[in-house]
Design brief:
The complex is a heterodimer. By secondary structure, chain A is an alpha+beta fold. Chain A is built from 11 helices and 8 strands. The two termini of chain A are 41 Å apart. By secondary structure, chain B is α+β, with helices and mostly antiparallel strands. In chain B, 56% of the residues lie in helices and 11% in strands. Chain B is globular and about 70 Å long. Chain B starts with 6 loop residues before the first helix and ends in a 10-residue tail after the last helix. Classes of the chains: A alpha+beta, B alpha+beta. At the A-B interface, helix 7, helix 8, helix 9 and helix 11 of A face helix 7, strand 9, helix 8, helix 9 and helix 10 of B.
Chain lengths: 383, 329
Amino acid sequence: MDLTFTEEEQAFRAEARAWLEANVPRPALPSGDTREGFALHKEWERALFDARWAVVSWPREYGGREASLMEWLIFEEEYYRAGGPQRVTQNGIFLLAPTLFELGTKEQQDRNLPKMASAEETWCQGWSEPNAGSDLAGIKSRAVRDEANGGWRLSGQKTWTTRGAFCDRMFGVFRTDPEAERHHGLTYFLVDLHADGVTVRPVERLDGDEGFAEVFLEDVFVPDRDVLGGVHEGWRVAMATTGSERGLTLRSPGRFMATAARLIELYRAHAGDADPTVRDAVIRAWIDADAYRWQTFWTVTRLMEGGRTGPEASLVKIFWSELDVRLHATALDLLGADAELVDGDDAAWMKGWQFALSGPIYAGTNEIQRNVVAERVLGLPRR
Amino acid sequence: MRFAFTDEQLAFRDAVHDLLEKECPPDRVREAWTNSDGRSGAWDALSEMGVTGLSHPDVAGNLGVDEIAVTLILEETGRFALPEPIVEHTAVALPAVAQHVPDAVTESSLFVAGGPLVPYATSATALLLERDKHLYLVDPAAATLTPRASVDRSRRLSSVQWDPSRATKVGDVRDAALAFDRGALGVAAQLIGLAQHMLDTTVDYAKERHQFGVPIGSFQAVKHHLANVALALEFARPLIYRAAHSLARRDSQRSVHVSTAKARASEAALLAARVALQVHGAIGYTTEYDLHLWMKRAWALAASWGDAAWHRERVGRAILDGETAAEEQ
């Protein structure tokens, strides 16, 4: 056991810190889930890409630095420490890309990864449907073979699509075998949202941003080259992505450590009138962020020595999403009567609170995650 | 950064596991409730294997053993609810006594530590006690020992009245702080082992026990209780190991790390006990069934060496008020 960082890791951290301190936009950008904010975020993503910080763990040929998992964690810590903006590229980079690397063809990788990393093309996730949320295998949107044109015709509706109103492309699962049921007969497609037959309707979220969308598809042509993994293999391909979403690649500890550090600053500003129970909640939240960091180092050591993540990813998803809620709830307690303000210096906490409330819902509700933990980690019977 | 144990550390842990499985089964823990000295009998076998003396500087130096290896062993003793005071003797007192009064250590020495309640004080060779942030090594015959009954009857507690003297002083502020952190981390490791055992046995029970024609473990309400215990353990265990590393390296943030570990371990074990009882139902509410042996040990250890709230506040003084580690303890 050696919990010190190597000289290379420390040099990597120093380089990231110096660049971020000089380049992170100030004042902070408006929310990336609004139209004007999204455009500014794309500029920021381009700057990150040009300096090779957009996708540090990727191969050099796609704009990365071939950083180790540990270095990626270090970058994430520095990114959020510096107050870096939320990544509007995250659904592509952290959810689709791992699947493309694992199951995509070289042609698909070459065509999609560089534009994804530079934010020239932005991606959203087409999972949920009006009647398929937690029960993803219940999806109804379908794809019909178009042999003459060498592709598929997609029809149906996707919903709660984060940043769907602004993105260029969507990855999602569609039913290609109408006879098959549940998780059989599905295929994973990469869909151009600018194609004929696509209608996107923005939906205002709880926090007032317009980042949600409903995506309607009517006979939308998708060529064969945009099938990821095999035809009818969509469930297996999709599961590769949900593993990434629940696990550490979507929500690295750096993000929560930065929030905990801001919470401590807020506590110090309000220490004089803070109730002892709120003080205790601040300490708890900081300990939990610390626990998340060390559980991650524990897991990453195992991964770097050849291990794989399995259903334990569900434990991680439950923990970070509920930690985020506690961090923000505690901040609102510290703010007292000012908690309701959505203007002024502390407005970010109410905004963040509302965003945090989505965590236990998206990427598989925490009720589903607890079932996964019980059945696949602890081995309890499904029925 | 390599946050994992070595193969040697894991192999030694496994050997201790095998020994405890043989020498410290639940029946022995149960016997320790009613026999004369509260011993399971596993102590001699552990001594023979070199486990109880592992932290003696001569042994530790030879074998390259440090707090990291010891913590892993203590977790295992928690899993088997070993009654004997291995935290007090091996983790806390032995390294301090061996460093300051090496002649006081013999093969049959049993040192205990703590305060105000000291376990096994009546059968100990000597007591390592703290007064005004200094350490003293006290002959039990020179102290007034008043037996007190623990909810865990295997823990033979005494309240100790004694007078410090220059002759019995064996350590200064730094030694006392180190001894306390070793004790707190030691019971934190045992709490993790206790919690893991309660989770494992409760999961087994939930698979076997049928109601309404199905295993009760198939009900979501039961599943979610047990998933919450798995969650608490998953995010407590790395804090224990990180604190062990900080102790072994004498990290300047050691006390904060120990306190995060003890706080989360106490909470995890209390939750495991609460859920284990609820999932077992009435059978768990009897003393004929073994669960209560683990549950009561968890209650006792969660409250000892600083409970969760006390340790959180110690963390708070460091991270919120900017107190440094040297001012702690």
